[in-house]
Amino acid sequence: MTEPTPLAPPRRAALAPAAPSHLSADMVARARQLIELYPEPRSALIPLCHLAQEQDGWLTPEAMVDIAGLVGVTPTEVLGTASFYDMLHTEPVGKYVVAVCTNIACLLGGAAELLEHAEDSLGIGAGGTTPDGTVTLEEAECLADCDRAPCVQVNHRYVGAQTPESFDRLVGELRSGARDADIPPHGTLIRVRRANGLAVDAAEVARERAAAADERAAREAATAPADGGGA
Amino acid sequence: MAITDPPKIVTARIGHDDSHTLGRYLATGGYDGLRKALTMTPEAVAAEVDAASLLGRGGAGFPAGRKWSMLRKAPVTYLVVNGDESEPATFKDHLLVERDPHQLVEGVVIAAYALQVSQVFIFLRGEFALGLERVQAALNDAYAHGAVGRDIFGSGFSVDVVVHPGAGAYICGEETALLESLEGKRGFPRIKPPFFPAAIGLYGDPTVVNNVETMSNLPWILLNGGAAFAALGGGRSTGTRLFALAGHVNNPGVYELEMVTTTFNDLINAPVLGGGIPHGRGLKAFIPGGVSAPWFGPDQIDLPLGQDEVAEAGSMLGSGSVVVMDDHTCAVRAAWRITKFFSRESCGQCTPCREGSGWLERIMERIERGQGREEDLDLLLDACDNIAPGLTWPPQQTTICVLGPSIPSSISSAITMFRDEFLVHIKEGGCPYE
After folding, report:
1. Domain count of chain A?
2. Chain A neighbours among B 125-154 (CB < 8 Å)?
3. Helix-strand-coil percent breakdown of chain B, rounded to 5?
4. What is B22-230's CATH number?
5. Is the pLDDT score of A174 beyond 80?
6. Considering the domain boundaries, does residue A1 fall inside one?
7. CB B70 within 8 A of CB B196
8. Which numeric CATH code is attached to B331-428?
9. Are strands B119-124 and B78-83 parallel, antiparallel or unpaired?
10. What is the mean pLDDT of residues B240-244?
11. Residue A216 and residue B186: Cβ atoms within 8 Å?
């Protein structure tokens, strides 16, 4: 009698994270530095999603597999978390994500008219990307720049209050590369790197946390009812 | 003249182009508050903040000192700074993180010392790309200067500060949602109790969560004393506060004003502040503290900028953002846009909020577009009542967090104050302002 052909690889092998294969060596090194900053690796999940967007412009399925392996969750958990957040794009976006706020302060400042103009002039609706892949237009919620209404951000950089005319000039500058110095391509969020590693030794922090947990457990034991609580 | 007299506690450096640099910070007394704090006991530092009666500047207005004292009974593990500023028309923390990041860092280290924590996370909303870079650069410089990290200024006290970028979700301003997000999860607010992360916070450990502006007040309070801070303002609302003024005013912006002694009228109309409403128009209504707050009309403009004073008048000072609407503003459209915001930002955990916000938004949209029915007004109020029973202020809670019960504020305000306007939309089949 011959051995039956296995239908799937053994479960253990399926769960073991593969080495990152999509993120570049530099990105993986940066990712490991970020993970080191947190007591739990999963806390670095969102910062790592930003890193993946810096490499690819958006959050690709391949990058999510790498991130899952790096922080010790499944790729589905990465997607499940990322899909909650507006800034994490699980579909391709343009080189520039242009966000027009239409919330209350900007609405009072003419944002609805600006967005309508932007849609007409770019030939796309909010949420769409121009055929040349340059601009993705978004209708945004409040971006906290309400004294310069209507507020526009390009790749999360404030570009000040815009009129229909200035908006068209802005798009022209983006297309010509005139804004390359101050507005990096979509995905690059924080260009200033942390200069120091963990200033306080991780083992020291772990010891303090364990001591705090012991103390809490002792307190809880002291205040717990004597028996399991009757019925 | 309370408008110009009070000391600039958190905006003293903002006028300088290089206000974000360590050089400017040190030249203007930077890190002196921290040096002083480190010569005191942690308990004495906390007592100074207690004496200042500093109310949290995030929106709920909970006394920072009391938040800390809940924790002094047990060791605190983490301090988390809430810089997820996303309440519509609130842009004060935006100013602080971009223009005076060292002041935030100094405040954070003072608080960490008072609480004796060795790990701080500064959570900034991801859309603050420049703010994230400025705070990280300030931290790099502060580490090199010896103001953060190991053995700060030779005191033996050590703390590590990590800047954490958010990824775009209003709900992460709710402190338990923020902690979930910081743990790498969806920003779902946690079920209460526990009501405060003091007991069960980040990774289940005792955690203090404080707002950026709250932290930024600490260097001044340490240098000048809690009593000097408490001498400003009035009643429970001590010190100065940042007010973000937006909408139909000549000079929108962030203004640091003494609490209570200044009024909404000063803020909106004083030439050195808001400068009045453009084009000679009149005031229709204003929102006194973020879009979760019920609206005020012109007859309430003389109310003082104080937490209890505004609460007694039936609204809240909230996040300190004031939105002015002139008499050419469509109240239906304004309330619709605010409802659309809540509908988009509801995290979806609780039925009254998730379903209610969507229904309300669609009914508001059809009224604004001229397809409303007269019974829609009762339908709106009925749906609002399902989210916040009784439509009281402060609202009744039917959901895990306060986002849900905040949804009815704008609709019930608009219907109460401008019912005729809704009826015109319905009867004339369109918006009279278009």
Report:
1. 2
2. 125-130, 132-134, 136-137, 139-140, 143-144, 148-150
3. 45, 15, 40
4. 3.40.50.11540
5. yes
6. no
7. yes
8. 1.20.1440.230
9. parallel
10. 96
11. no
pLDDT in tens, A32-77: 999 999 999 999 999 999 999 999 999 999 999 999 999 999 999 9
Kindly state whether residue A184 falls inside one of the protein's structural domains.
no
The residue-averaged pLDDT of B297-302 equals 98
Q: Which residues contact B421 (CB under 8 A, 6 or more apart)?
A: B330, B331, B332, B414, B432
Quick one: pLDDT at residue B72? 62
pLDDT of residue A225 exceeding 60, the answer is: no
A104/B254 CB distance under 8 A: no
* B positions 368-427 inside 8 Å of A (CB): none
Residue A118 is assigned to a structural domain of this protein: yes
* A87/A201 same-domain check: yes
* Residues in B touching A109 (Cβ below 8 Å): 247
Token pair 């969750």 is found at A73
For residue range A70-116, list pLDDT tens digits in order.
999 999 999 999 999 999 999 999 999 999 999 999 999 999 999 99
Which chain A residues are closer than 8 Å to B165 by Cβ?
Answer: 46-47, 50, 189-190
**Together in a domain, A169 and A121:** yes
User: Which of A193, A201, A122 is CA-nearest to residue B150?
Assistant: A201
Residue ranges of domains in chain B: 22-230, 233-326, 331-428
For residue range B10-23, list pLDDT tens digits in order. Answer: 999 999 999 999 99
| Residue A22: pLDDT over 90 | yes
Its ipTM equals 0.96
Asked if A86's CB is within 8 angstroms of B140's CB, the reply is no
Q: Which residue blocks in B231-330 are alpha helix, DSSP H? A: 264-269, 307-312
CB pairs under 8 A between A and B: 205
Cβ of B75 within 8 Å of Cβ of A211? The answer is: yes
Is there a domain that residue A129 lies in? yes
Q: Which residues of B touch A110 (CB under 8 A)?
A: none
Length of chain A: 231
The reply to whether B86 touches chain A by the CB within 8 Å rule is yes
Residue reference for tokens 């073991």: A16
Regarding whether A132 and A109 lie in a shared domain, the answer is: yes
Fold for the domain defined by B233-326: Ubiquitin-like (UB roll) (3.10.20)
Contact across the interface for B129 and A156, Cβ inside 8 Å: yes
What strands lie across the sheet with A152-154, from one edge to the other? A135-140, A96-101, A152-154, A157-158
CB-CB neighbors (< 8 A) of B205 in chain A:
209, 212-213
Eight-state DSSP code of residue B31? T
When CB atoms are compared, the residue of A82, A85, A209 closest to B205 is: A209
Q: Do B165 and A108 touch (CB under 8 A)?
A: no
Q: Judge if A79 and A103 occupy the same domain.
A: no
A-chain residues near B321 (CB < 8 A)? 146
A210 and A145, same structural domain?
Answer: no
Q: Which two tokens stand for residue A87?
A: 């800034």
Q: Which domain holds residue A47?
A: 13-92+190-220
pLDDT band at B60 (very low <50, low <70, confident <90, very high): confident
What is the CB-side half-sphere exposure of residue B409 using CA atoms within 13 A?
Answer: 28
